[in-house]
Design a protein that fits this description.
Largest sheet: 5 strands, antiparallel
Pfam families: eIF-5a (PF01287), IF5A-like_N (PF21485)
Strand order of the largest sheet: 9-8-7-10-11
Protein name: Eukaryotic translation initiation factor 5A
Number of helices: 1
Keywords: Hypusine, Initiation factor, Protein biosynthesis
Number of strands: 11
Strand content: over 45%
Radius of gyration: 21 Å
GO molecular function, one term: translation initiation factor activity
CATH topology of the largest domain: OB fold (Dihydrolipoamide Acetyltransferase, E2P)
CATH architecture of the largest domain: Beta Barrel
Shape: elongated
Number of domains: 2
Helix content: under 10%
Family: Belongs to the eIF-5A family.
Distance between the termini: 69 Å
Order of helices and strands: EEEEEEEEEHEE
CATH class of the largest domain: Mainly Beta
Amino acid sequence: MSDEEHQFESKADAGASKTYPQQAGTIRKNGYVVIKGRPCKVVEVSTSKTGKHGHAKCHFVAIDIFNGKKLEDIVPSSHNCDVPHVNRTEFQLIDISEDGFVSLLTESGGTKDDLKLPTDDALLGQLKNGFEEGKDMVVTVMSAMGEEQICALKDIGPK
């Protein structure tokens, strides 16, 4: 045995993986899948028959959950696909800043100030109008693969 000290530098972050494997043949409509490195919600799945040379194939049509772009992928049904861990969390809206960020109240009583206003015009209008009228609002934040975005809004009454 040697008396040398070893230093290990870890470049990976601690915590859970951003995705988990799932067999392509078991992924259904309204499920989630990673296509071209983006977390997507599946809107259509079609499976082709086994061909002369092997595997049945799954054709996925999916919409990116953050930017709304349509993506497609074809994967052999016996192969694994990456499926993102998608979480939804509710926060109470405290403030909307001039630079387009929102201030949200967390469960623990702290604030979360790193989220931008939603890009969806209808949701953005609802959020701004409700805030200007002084309503208490709860926003739903969807997070997957290190990204977060406001995806829904609830009015819980006047302040």
